[in-house]
């Protein structure tokens, strides 16, 4: 089983958000599942939620299977080989994880180390997979806001990624909002650091006149909507940036 220190450090932060949305009976499709640490952690905590991991890297796929074998989960499917840069109609999917049958599409630390085609593919596939009224796309990773990157460690990280590949680097929230699929099918809302605010789609039965907020004990900026939620992470202190392999 492969182990990534970053996954250990952020898995609980992401789990706190999933608890809000991945309620009993929900289905979560994870794009770029990596080592399998995240899905193993989430599946153990959310036993009534069904998870479908996926990867494009063969070594990572083997690692995910090893985590599943070790834990003997009943709520995690065998990982799929999914290349998000390929057209959605080329994906081989289980019958119950087909178009508009998924409650949450989850992608962790992918957007800053993948091709532009994969960025587009993530949003387009999410639009195809998600329930049309209540589905959510959740991404986690470092982002820029209106071209501004903070703190200094994120600036250095962005520069290092760009040196490795011009298509790498922190994606800007405003840029993601302007993607054709995102602009026509998804709404974005910037809220204050440290808070998570959930806005339900108008007319949904869970709509409340008063917004609800959850204080998260981490330095987070969240982008939340009825279709898209992005956890914007800030690295603190010094960060050593090794060469990062392309995800897609």
TrEMBL record:
It comes from the Eukaryota. InterPro entries: DUF938 (IPR010342), SAM-dependent_MTases_sf (IPR029063). It holds the Pfam family DUF938. Gene3D superfamilies: Vaccinia Virus protein VP39. SUPFAM superfamilies: S-adenosyl-L-methionine-dependent methyltransferases. Belongs to the UPF0585 family. This is Methyltransferase type 12 domain-containing protein.
């Amino acid at each position: 089983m492969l182990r990534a220190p970053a996954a250990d450090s952020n898995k609980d932060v992401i789990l706190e958000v999933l608890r809000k949305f991945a309620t009993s009976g929900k289905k979560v499709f994870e794009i770029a599942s990596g080592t399998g640490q995240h899905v193993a952690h989430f599946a153990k905590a959310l036993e009534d939620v069904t998870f479908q991991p996926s990867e494009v890297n063969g070594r990572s796929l083997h690692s995910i299977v090893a985590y599943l074998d070790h834990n003997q989960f009943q709520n995690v499917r065998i990982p799929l080989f999914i290349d998000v840069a390929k057209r959605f109609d080329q994906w081989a999917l289980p019958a119950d994880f087909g178009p508009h049958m998924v409650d949450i599409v989850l992608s962790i630390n992918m957007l800053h180390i993948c091709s532009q085609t994969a960025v587009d593919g993530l949003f387009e596939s999410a639009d195809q997979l998600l329930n049309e009224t209540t589905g959510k796309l959740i991404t986690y990773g470092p982002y820029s806001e209106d071209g501004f990157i903070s703190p200094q460690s994120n600036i250095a990280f962005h520069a290092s990624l760009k040196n490795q590949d011009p298509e790498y680097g922190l994606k800007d929230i405003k840029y993601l909002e302007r993607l054709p699929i995102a602009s026509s099918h998804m709404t974005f809302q910037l809220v204050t650091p440290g808070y998570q605010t959930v806005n339900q789609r108008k007319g949904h039965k869970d709509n409340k006149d008063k917004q609800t907020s959850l204080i998260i004990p981490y330095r987070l900026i969240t982008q939340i909507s009825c279709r898209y939620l992005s956890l914007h992470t800030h690295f603190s202190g010094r960060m050593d940036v090794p060469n990062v392999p392309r995800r897609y």
